[in-house]
Every structure is written in C-alpha cells, then in structure tokens.
Amino acid sequence: xxxxxxxRDKLFEALGKQYTDDEFQDLCFAYGVELDDVTTERQQAAKxxxxxxxxxxxxxxxDDEILYKIDIPANRYDMLCLEGIARALxxxxxxxxxxxxxxxxxxxxxxxxxxxxxxDTALVRPFMVAAVLRGIxxxxxxxxxxxDLQDKLHQNLCxxxxxxxxxxxxxxxxxxxxxxxxxxxxxxxFVPLKQTRSFRADELLTFYSENDKALxxxxxxxxxxxxxxxxxxxxxTVMSMPPIINSAHSQITLETTDVFIDVTATxxxxxxxxxxxxxxxxxxxxxxxxxxxxxxxxxALGNSTLYPDLSPTEMTVSVDAINRYIGTQLPGQQIANSLxxxxxxxxxxxxxxxxxxxxxxxxCDVLHAxxxxxxxxxxxxxxxxxxxxxxxxxxxxxxxxxxxxxxxxGEMARAGYTEILTWALVSRDENFGKLRRPxxxxxxxxxxxxxxxxxxxCRTSLLPGALKTLAESRSLPLPLxxxxxxxxxxLDSDAEAGARNERRLCAVCCAHSDTFEAMHGLLxxxxxxxxxPCRLDGEAIPEGTQEERHPDKFQGYFGWKMSSDATFxxxxxxxxxSEGRPVGIFGIVHPEVSTAFKIPAPVAALELQLEPxxxxxxxxxxxxxxxx
Amino acid sequence: xxxxxxxxxxxxxEGEGGGDSAEVALAQQVDHLAVIGAVKSLESAEMITxxxxxxxxxxxxxxAKIYAESGSPEAHVYSQIPAEGISIPDLxxxxxxxxxxxxxxxxxxxxxxxxxxxxxDRATKLLVRxxxxxxxxxxxxxxxxxxxxxxxxxxxxxxxxxKRKLLAVRTWTAYRLARGPxxxxxxxxxxxxxxxxxxxxxxxxxxxxxxxxxxxxxxxPLGGYLHPLLKVRSQFRKIFMQMGFEEMPTNAWLExxxxxxxxxxxxxxxxxxxxxxxxxxxxxxxxxxxxLPQDYVQVVRNTHERGIDxxxxxxxxxxTSEAAKNLLRTHTxxxxxxMLYRLAKICRDGTGEFQPAKYFSIDRVFxxxxxxxxxxxxxxxxxxxxxxxxxxxxxLIGMLREFFKRMGMPELRFKxxxxxxxxxxMEIFGYSNELGKWMELGNSxxxxxxxxxxxxxxxxxxxxxxxxxxxxxxxxxxxxxxIRDLFGHKVSLAAVGxxxxxxxxxxxxxxxxxxT
Lengths: 628, 516
Fold this sequence. Notes:
The structure holds 2 protein chains of 2 kinds.
Chain A: E1 3-7, H1 8-15, H2 21-31, E2 34-40, H3 41-48, H4 53-59, E3 66-71, H5 82-93, H6 95-98, E4 103-104, E5 113-117, E6 127-133, H7 140-155, E7 164-170, E8 178-183, E9 189-190, E10 199-200, H8 201-211, H9 213-216, H10 219-223, E11 228-232, E12 238-241, E13 245-246, E14 259-265, H11 268-282, E15 291-298, E16 304-307, E17 313-318, H12 319-326, H13 332-339, E18 345-348, E19 354-359, H14 369-380, H15 400-414, E20 418-419, E21 425-426, H16 428-431, E22 446-447, E23 457-458, H17 463-472, E24 480-491, E25 499-510, H18 515-530, E26 558-562, E27 568-578, E28 581-589, H19 591-596, E29 603-609
Parallel strand pairs in A: 4-15, 5-8, 5-15, 20-24
Antiparallel strand pairs in A: 1-3, 2-3, 6-14, 6-15, 7-14, 8-11, 9-10, 11-12, 12-13, 15-16, 17-19, 18-19, 21-23, 24-25, 25-29, 26-27, 27-28, 28-29
Helix pairs in contact in A: 1-5, 3-4
Chain B: H1 2-14, E1 18-20, H2 21-28, H3 32-44, E2 48-60, H4 62-70, H5 73-80, H6 88-96, H7 104-114, E3 118-120, E4 127-129, H8 137-146, H9 155-163, E5 167-179, E6 190-191, H10 196-201, E7 208-209, H11 228-242, E8 246-247, E9 254-256, H12 257-260, E10 281-283, H13 294-306, H14 320-324, E11 326-328, H15 333-343, H16 345-349, E12 357-366, E13 378-389, H17 393-405, E14 412-416, E15 422-432, E16 437-447, H18 449-452, E17 461-469, H19 471-477, H20 493-498
Parallel strand pairs in B: 6-7, 8-12
Antiparallel strand pairs in B: 1-5, 2-5, 3-4, 9-11, 12-13, 13-17, 14-15, 15-16, 16-17
Helix pairs in contact in B: 1-3, 2-3, 4-8, 5-7
C-alpha cells in the first residue's frame, strides 16, 4: 500500500477542521485509509541518522511541522496527494458542499493545442496523451505536492515508469504544435533537467547508469531500443525523453502558470488514467478551478482524439441487488444519496428500482457494480450492517493426509520425541552437499530470485531442518529426540506446475550411544501406531490366515532391508519397505554429515513417506493429491 | 544416624522431658550438625519438639587446637633452650622444624620473656633459661576448653586467650528439646512410600509414613512435546470442523501464476507480481499452459482484458506467458480458486444443482521478504471460504463474529480495505481485553464477480472469505515478540517443552442452563 506523507496542519486547513490524532484516525478507519504514523521532518531525518549525535540534536527541536503518514489503498490513485486525500474526506463528510465536477475548457472559440504521434514510436513506446492546465497558481507546497504525486504515480500505477511516464512543462517556454517521435539516440541532444550541459541521448543513458541512483533503474526500459522516444515542440526543442527525463528548457517553476502535461505509455488505458488523475487533482489550482484544457492528439494512423477524457463512466445497479449483496434493506433514494459521500453521483431511475451511477474520472478503481456496492456499504458504515451467520448446512471434513499427520504427531510425542517445525526453504548445500547427496538437478525446485541468499531450493528431505535444530541445541543434555511431520517438494513432470509435495515424517535421536537401536525401535513404534504389521523377507506366511490368499505376500506389511545411502553410516542403515516398495530410510547419520552440520554427538535418523499409509479403517486407500 | 536418634531420645527421657542438643553433641562426641539432623528428623516425626536458641560459646582457634595438644608457644620455646642458651635464629630453626604454626617461635619467645621464664644474655645475645621448671597453664586452659569445660576458666583467662587469638567466640543455634506427642524411646520405622510388599503383607495399615514436603517441587516425567504453533493449528482445525468446514487439499506449495493471481482477477501489472515480493522459480520455471482447462483460461483472459457481467475489466492486454510463470504460492487463496472452480463444475456442465460449500485450510505460504522479528519468508495462512446462493456482507460479518468469538475475540470492528479479488473488502480488528487495545486480526471480503463468473457460478452465488496468519495469534497467545522463536531451527526446545496445552476455542456449554 502506498504511504503518503502530508503536513498535518495543511491537511486540516484543507479539511476546514482541527482533529485530534484519534479523531482523525477514526475518520480514516471509517473511510478505509489508515493513519500509519505521526512524525516530523526532523524525526524522519533523525531516523535516518539514528544513533548519531545528529539524531539527538534533530529530535530535540520542537518547532517542526507535524507530518501524517497515511496508508492509501493500492487502487485509490486519486488519493496519492494531499489535494486528493482532503477532497475525498471532505466529500465523505460534507458531500453537498464539497462535491466536484471535472470539466474540459470551452474550446468553441479557439483551437486546442495539437500533438502528433509519429509511427516509429510503435517500436519503443507507442502511446501518448496530453493536457494543459491554464492559470495555475503554484506555491512551494503545491509545487512539491505536484512533483510528489508524479513520483507516487510513477511508483505505483506506472510500474516504475515501464508502463507509463509523466513529463510536465512550462507551456510558456514552448512553441506548439508538438510531436512525439522515436529517433536514433545519435539524433537526440538536449540539456536534461538538473544538468547544465547538453548530452547526446546514448551518452545521457550511460551517464545516468553510472552516476544517478534514482534514474539508473529506468535506463533499461529503452536502453536496448534502436530508437528512443522523444517529445519535441514546433522549433524541434526537446521537451522530454520519456520515460527517463525532461529537458531543462521547459522546466516548471513556482512562476509557471500554464502547464503542459505529457504522458507516454506502453498501455493506453493506464496512460489515460494517469493523465486524468493529474488533471483532476491539480486543475483545483487552475484559473477556472477543476477545468482542464484539452489537447488534440493525432495518432500514428491519423486518428484525432481530444484528451483528457473526463466524462463519467455510467452504470445502472438495481436497488434490490445492492441490498441483497450487503444484507440491508436501504431505500433506493437513500442509496442514491449515500453514493455522493464516495464521490460517485447516484440518481434513482424513474421506476425507483435501480440507481443510475455516474463514476467520475478520479474513481478509475470502479470496474463493476460490486465496487459501487462496496461504496454504498462504506457510506452506510461497515459497522452498522446487521450481522447474521450464513444458514447453509454443510458438514465438516478433514483431509485424510492431514488427519493421519495429526494422529501420528501425537504418537511421536508419546514416544518421547519433541516436535520441531522447520523451514521449507534451504540452501543447496544443506539439501545436498552436507548430506553427501549429489544434486543432479532432477529433484529440487530452484528459486530464481531469493531476497535471502541461503534460500536456494525447496527441501527434498526433512533432514536438514532436523540436523540444523540439533546443531542449535548443542548446549542441551543428551539424548535429544526430535521429530517433524511436514512436506518436502519434489520435481515431478506429471504435476501441473512440475512439482509435487510429499508428506514425510522425520525423526532424529542424538545420544552418546545406541542411536541405531533407538531408530529401529521407533520404526516399530510408528508401524504399530499405523497398524501395519511387519514381515521380513523370507518369512513364511502363516497357513490358513487371510494373508495366505493374497497374491503378494508383502501386501499390507512393512519391512526393512540393509541399504547403502551416502547420508548414512555403512552397515548401520536400512531402507524401510511398505508392501515391498521403499518408502523411507533409517540409520546412523554418516559422521561426515553430522560434522558438516556441527553436531558433536552420534545422530540416528529416520525419514518416512506418509502417503502410502493413508487408508481408512477398512484399508481402503484414500486420495492424497486431489487438485493437481 | 539411628544411634544418634536413640541418644537424643534417651537424653530427653533422662532429662525428664527436657534436654539440649548441644549436650547431646558433647556427650556423644559428635559434631552438633549431626545432632541437628537427628533432631529435625525426630521433630518431623513428632517424637520430640525442638526450639532453637542462640548460644554463645568460646572455642579454640585452629592454632589453639595444636597448642592444646603439644603445649603453648612459650612452653615450646622454653623446652628448646639448652643450658648454655641458644641464638634466636637457631631457636627459630629448631621450632620451625616441628609441625607448629609458623609464628610459634616469636610468639613463644615474647610470652616466655614476659613470664620471665627466659631472658637474653646481654653479652652473648643468646636466649637463656631463667627458671628451672615451668607449669604450662595456657595448655591446661586450652585443654579444658577442648573438653567443653570453658566455663571453668576465669573471665581474665578467657580475655587473655581471646586477645592471643587462641579462643574465638562463636554464636550458633542449639535446640532446647522436649517430648513430642509421639515420644517413644525408640523410633518406629518411617516409610516414604507405599510399596507392593506392604500391600502384600498388610503392614501398610500400621506403618508410619514420613511427612511429605508439600512445599517443594519435584522432577517431571520425561516426555515428548508438540510444537506450540502446531498446537494452535490443531485448535483452529477443530474450530473450523465444529463450524462445518471441509479442509482444502493445500499440499501443493508450488503453484503457477494463473491460479495464484490470474484466476483471482489480480491484474498482471499488480505490484505483488513483482519479483521482489514473490518467489519465482528457475526450475520448474513455467507451467505448460495446455495442462490448464483451456475454456476457463480463455474466459479469464477475456475477463481481464474486457470484463464480464458488466465489469470493465482491466482494459489491458493479458499475457499467457505471465500466467505460466511458476512460483511458491503467496496465499492459499490459489487453492480456494481451484476448489471453487471444481465446485462450479456442476453449474458449468449444467448436470445438476449448485451445492453450497464451506472450505478451510491452514498451510504454508511464501513471501520473498527479508527475515526479521516479524517477518519470515514462509508462514502459515488460515483461510475460511463460504460459497452459497445469496450470501451477503452481513453474512460475512456474522461468520467472522462466530469464528473470532471462538478465538476469544468477541468484539470486532471492520475497516474498508482494498484487495484485488474481493469487493467489498474488510480488514478485521478485534479488541483484546488482555492488551486493552484494538488489533488487526486479518482480512476478509466477498470474491469479485470477475473471479466467480468465469468459473461458471450462477449470478446469485456469492463467496465470502477471510484469512489470517497462524503465527500472529500464536505469538499474542504466547506473549512472544520474535517470530523466529516460533518457527524455524532456532526455536528453543526448552520453550517447546514448557508450552502448555492450547485452550483456543474452548467455550462454555452451548446449551443454556435449565431455569430452576
């Protein structure tokens, strides 16, 4: 969620009322924004230099402006600046006095400014829209807010300028008509904002890559293109090279009165949204408040369109549908009126059965009737809605694999083992190297972009987590007996996304001696708990028993046989068999493995798949992987 | 021990019901501490009573004990002087050769000279005898003290010996003894435990049992323990089951973007789909999209691009390649989407009537976040989903009240929120009586028509859902402030053993009591 920092006193001035922090918090709560923090510029600066002498000095001064940091829902682009927040809350509190209509300037007496898009822009950044704000009165606060809003939009809706980029210009310095072109980098030269000399476009990108922390990240958006986008005026003066930088020539200042807004994009819908937000927010300060002068944009095919499009979106929603959705019995007229609080305008249809809703250009988050319904609910107050438990009769049910896991966890604790819960994300070395297992690339899921470097793969065994826990518990007296019931993830080309979970039980026993027998005994304990009898190879089937009639003499039985797994100590390890198939392993952990995990005492371990044991009381197998 | 107990009992008996522990020690020639042991044991058996009092007593210092045996320092000096006299270094050497305290020679010389037993010859500088014989009264006094007869010494003698650091004053506790209610000359055997032999031969009936010390702790049985977080998970599972919810198969941590995001109508340009929030994969990097239900994928695409059911959609191009990207699921709602798609089959196919459903899950989800006190890269999401005809926002509020009441949070408030796949959306706040403040508990909402209609649900079917993390309520429950103390290999095993059963979800009787 974007966090917007605004001066408290300026906000209250715009709201026409002084609030206590708590009162303001309550207003925010009802509307659905959040007062995240109350701070001052100095405190914020102090946080950055925390622990230094400067911190004490900064936080000791109290003549500082108080700042509100406000959390805004990610879809309310119209609340990314003080003007927008104040407007939305004002309308919410006093819809009659504060509602606003956004209009285009009357162009019947004059021609709109014209912008032509050249076809080559399709190669790099095909769309552009524009608008003009006339007679703007800037002061330091408004100017900063205007710049900050562009910045917030760039971070959010514009997706770091990759989708949309904004340029704003002092129209007085430019000569219309304008063109939007795509030119080879060698053909573009201009003095960029904040610089004093002229750069060639390719040279400028190199300069930013090397020297500018803020602009560096935008360079890759056009770097590899053969042509760079550029906005020019009639004199071929470069206005901006989107999405990187504007030219110093047309920079807006506190004295600027006429602002030309250029918005370039790879996504036209979002370009229009961004332009609408900028115009609706800052036309507040225009000579004719809330009025924007349109610009005629001629696209590459020669089609001419007037931007911005500030016309409202219209929607008709039935009163009954609204009440049925919320669970209220609000009269149609009340619903229509309440929409004004949310900056929508509602009118009851002639038959009184529906509300005709006009959605202003600021509310581009409204896509469907359900968005209108939410606004009715907010206007009514979430906490005023009558609560009732749904009446649908359903039965509860557990997933068999989880049901079995729950029961087995209890059995393990009863056997004297303590439960651990370890991370599924491990390093490659923990999952393979330290376990003396080769990574042939066919078992583990590999992460592409972990923020924490030790997370490289999804575990394919529960052992690393258990061994890491033993290492962390070195100071405790032995024996240590631990277990975990959890999933590992294995590559599996049959699964929809290419990997499946497998439920495992893992136990480790770290003691001075006799660990192998402890594990062997534990296996018998587990199988007793699972109700699975034992049959070792070569044992005769008792005559006349039911088992005799089974074709496979191992069906329904478990067993074990000596194994040679590199993770375990030779001669002290065995594969666990279920119905003759390997389903796990137990044994003394190889000394090189326990040493690699920094465990100073002998460790024995057991790891067992649980899916083969998911059956009901009649031994009918139950499904374990249902969706994939 | 038993002998000493008998001696104490006899002492009390002979003293006609009175006695003193110090006298017993003296008479028995044992350390007084041993007598105390016997006294305490008899006292707890109520055979005697014992009343402590402060006793001041002189006793020999360590050096004095040696002198009591071998003679006073001055006597040693006198006995070492031959007729012709001895030089002081020679005297020191002679006495130093004995097993005596190291300043015996100088102390003895000073005392012997004061007593005029010896003197220094001015001419030869040798120490010579002054008298023919001596009586070592200091030794005699010391021996009397050693024999417990310190009272025979005069006040002046005690003062002198104390000054010479041969006597020390000690204050200690002795006990005045008297008969107790169960006084006898011999002690009946006291048993600590009821044994199988006693039951067999019937002696338990007359046996005397030692009083148990109820003020002490004792060792606990050794055992295994369940993990604190998973104990809370078990209680949550019960709560859902009690409320008629069916568990969703969440045992698939790997998911593709299609189910994790697109099916939920989460726009392809949403920041959550950025690499810095979500774990994407190099192996297996993508899902081959032909494995997915093609008709459904097409409807989802259209919904994103152009909308459905009166919605505008996102009016942006929808990329199959973006949907195909695999990831570690960021929420279990990916599974809810799969379950709902399955539930809607009967409506899609037109083969039968829609059936309502209530689903729940508690399983791991993954976020590509740096680890700190409140964040892990993986945590457990608790999710509840109800799907039925005509569900309302009021139903969601009612369901949440019912659910959180069982978590001990009867008082709830709701704040409007934004979530790409729910509308209306509500953040849930609960009032904690314990902490005296409102706390954010989780998120909730009604799934958007843009998510449900493509699955094939009829228009009047709504879905209400809510989610919260398992870790946060568990941390509040266990008063923890570091999530790494709860999940991962650094959790203290001692803390796991100390954790009590989880009472989350306990309720009073649901049947109202019968009026009397």
